[in-house]
# Entry
Amino acid sequence: MSGNADLLRLASDLEARRATLLVSGDADALAGLLSEELYYAHSTGRLDDKKSFVEKFRNGTFVFRSVDTRVESARELGEYAFQAGGVLTLRVLVDGVPRRIVAGYLVVWRQEAGVWRLIGHQATTAQTEPERATA
# Structure
């Protein structure tokens, strides 16, 4: 990895890809982006590993309607990993309940066999509200 601008661009690209896959509903493609060692801490305090996260995604526990990630910082963690942080805004059904969540978040990406995979995610809710029905 080289300069900070390149790292921010890489982080933004990976996060945009992750957001697209979350909204797409394609569990197999999403699973390919996640490390087998994934530690995923939700803004609610729920914890998932790769298997449980993908299963909840596949069975409709989480249905992402929109995901917007704004990467604000990135830092190398050795030659083949980095952390990035920023603000995450999403609309999601959680157990059938619509939510709008704004959270600060931190992700860790690691290159595994030449492929960037998400290995860590931690979000802290800045704002969450029930969705209001629109006419």
